[in-house]
């Protein structure tokens, strides 16, 4: 029922996944129960990072799910303080241990911090050893990707960047498409920002399709070929966010949403974590 995106090396990535940053525990639900709701709802692709401090709990939830490991697509990320040829390999092993797995489906450099080229060489080595199926980056700008291209054997297969209807990332997206780098959106729902959820254009499209604004936004991403990892701690929304494969947006809807781009970030500007190439 999910769609998939193919990385340049032929690996299929479930196009809709579940982001686990800051998953909130409620009165009646802990982190593992929320993940278990997501697995029951059909999610198999999970996005975590060393810095989210929940790799271990995610590993438990997956291990206890009764679903075989190979049916999951697991992503983690190396944090800025672990960048370097040796350090990154050690960080990878630690993440695997916490996630209770011998390999990762995807491993990303979280930000282009100091020594990101050496970190990339570590990812290339781990990839060659068959320990990671897809290697990529997050929050990289064109200059970082260009710099890496000069020093790398493998071009990053994916770049995970903030993207939503008010921040559509058009120039970076076009560069990535020319270089066969997949586009993955973090904050695909604009982190729940009211400016999106109260937008009249999105509300009118949602009414016409008898869907919610969140579902329209996710469908818009999928139709652009973007991989999405929406986060929710609410069982109702967890189900709602994956219930997007039984309707479609028209070209006109897509054009109307394209016009909402304001070039406006809602979250941290990654520049604070980056170094100039
Ligand atoms: P998101 O766009 O997924 O928004 C999540 C928020 O939107 C929720 O907390 C909730 O408030 C709201 N929401 C969710 N579903 C909704 C619905 N159906 N209707 C109304 N509101 C809804 O933002 P995010 O969590 O920041 O991003 C998703 C994932 O991306 C993260 O969990 C994480 O895995 C990843 N991420 C990566 C980076 C990076 O630097 N690489 C940065 C931030 C997030």
Calculate Rg over CA atoms: 18 Å
Count of β-strands:
10
Overall geometric form? globular
* Tally of separate helices: 11
Which ligands are bound?
A: nicotinamide-adenine-dinucleotide
H/E element sequence: EEEHEHEHEHEHEHEHHHEHH
Helix content: 25-40%
Task: Report, as a whole number of angstroms, the end-to-end distance.
Answer: 41 Å
Quick check: average pLDDT? 96
**CATH topology type:** TIM Barrel
What CATH architecture would you give?
A: Alpha-Beta Barrel
Q: Can you summarize the main beta sheet? A: 8 strands, parallel
Q: Could you name the CATH homologous superfamily?
A: NADP-dependent oxidoreductase domain
Low-pLDDT residue intervals, each spanning 5 or more residues: none
Count of spatially separate domains = 1
Given the helix and strand composition, which structural class is it?
alpha/beta
Provide the β-strand percentage band. 15-25%
Strand order of the largest sheet: 3-4-5-6-7-8-9-10
CATH class: Alpha Beta
Structure description:
Helix content is 39%, strand content 15%. It is α/β, with parallel strands linked by helices and 277 residues long. The protein has a single domain (12-273), classed as TIM Barrel, CATH 3.20.20. The strands form 2 sheets. The chain has an 8-stranded parallel beta sheet. A two-stranded antiparallel sheet has the order 1-2. Helix 1 runs parallel beside helix 10 (235-242), helix 3 packs across helix 4 (116-128) and helix 8 packs across helix 9. The longest helix has 15 residues, at 85-99. It binds nicotinamide-adenine-dinucleotide (NAD). Nicotinamide-adenine-dinucleotide (NAD) is lined by residues 19-21, 47, 110, 138-139, 160, 186-192, 197, 212, 214, 229-232, 237, 240-241. Residues 19-21, 47, 110, 138-139, 160, 186-192, 197, 212, 214, 229-232, 237, 240-241 line the site of nicotinamide-adenine-dinucleotide (NAD).
């Amino acid at each position: 029922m999910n769609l998939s995106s193919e990385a340049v090396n032929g690996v299929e990535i479930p196009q809709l996944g579940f982001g686990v940053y800051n998953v909130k525990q409620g009165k009646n639900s802990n982190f593992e129960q929320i993940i278990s709701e997501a697995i029951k709802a059909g999610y198999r692709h999970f996005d975590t990072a060393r810095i989210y401090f929940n790799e271990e709990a995610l590993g438990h939830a997956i291990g206890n799910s009764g679903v075989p490991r190979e049916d999951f697509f697991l992503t983690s990320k190396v944090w800025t303080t672990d960048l370097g040829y040796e350090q990154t390999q050690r960080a990878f092993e630690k993440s695997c241990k916490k996630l209770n797995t011998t390999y990762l489906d995807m491993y990303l450099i979280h930000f282009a911090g100091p020594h990101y080229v050496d970190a990339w060489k570590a990812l290339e080595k781990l990839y060659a050893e068959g320990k990671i199926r897809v290697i990529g980056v997050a929050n990289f700008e064109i200059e970082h990707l260009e710099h890496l291209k000069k020093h790398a054997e493998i071009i990053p297969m994916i770049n995970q960047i903030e993207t939503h209807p008010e921040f559509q990332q058009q120039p970076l997206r076009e560069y990535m498409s020319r270089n066969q780098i997949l586009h993955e959106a973090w904050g695909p729902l604009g982190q729940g920002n009211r400016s999106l959820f109260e937008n009249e254009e999105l509300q009118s499209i949602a009414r016409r399709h008898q869907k919610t604004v969140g579902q329209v936004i996710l469908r818009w991403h999928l139709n652009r070929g973007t991989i999405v990892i929406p986060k929710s701690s609410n069982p109702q929304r967890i189900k709602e966010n994956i219930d997007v494969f039984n309707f479609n947006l028209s070209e006109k809807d897509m054009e109307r949403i394209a016009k909402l781009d304001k070039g406006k970030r809602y979250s941290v500007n990654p520049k604070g974590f980056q170094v100039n190439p």
